[in-house]
């Protein structure tokens, strides 16, 4: 599959880039995508929720009334979970929500998402991009030229570019990442995926390892 390379003005350069069908043309595996997105979201959770059990509550340990003979239920101390201010039964504790997935499954998930994006014509190729200085207005002009204004756009770079990153950082619907930092969640979340010309070969090789 081939796509035309666009310049920063949104015009065709006349060059074409070939996309490997083994990466961008497979039958999407939705379950693999679900698992990697679930893993990504789980890793974002802080897992710091905590409540106190009865052994952690400060209070008297005196038995409130005698065990038998009162005609009502048996009571323990004031820290019992049945009383206001007592401990909580089976409350949350700090935990790590992260879990592992096989590398092969994560590669399959990325291929599935990319193949779906290719079917939807949501992938574009842009000539290699560089800014002399960080300027958000220059990035806004680029989005307008590509007709991506107001759309969620993910730009995939062949290498770290500080000026490009800083120019896009204040745009809420735009994300700039290196080719080796991409997760399936990033691709799913983006409406349009824009590969810089130099990133395509590196990205494909990364998924074939």
From TrEMBL:
The keyword Acetylation does not apply. One of its GO terms (biological process) is translation. The keyword RNA-binding applies. Keywords: Ribonucleoprotein, Ribosomal protein, RNA-binding, rRNA-binding. GO terms for cellular component: ribonucleoprotein complex; ribosome. InterPro entries: Ribosomal_uL4, Ribosomal_uL4-like, Ribosomal_uL4_dom_sf. GO terms for molecular function: rRNA binding; structural constituent of ribosome. It holds the Pfam family Ribosomal_L4. Residues 45-74 are annotated as: Disordered. Forms part of the polypeptide exit tunnel. One of the primary rRNA binding proteins, this protein initially binds near the 5'-end of the 23S rRNA. It is important during the early stages of 50S assembly. It makes multiple contacts with different domains of the 23S rRNA in the assembled 50S subunit and ribosome. Belongs to the universal ribosomal protein uL4 family. Part of the 50S ribosomal subunit. HAMAP family: Ribosomal_uL4_B. This is Large ribosomal subunit protein uL4. It comes from Halpernia frigidisoli.
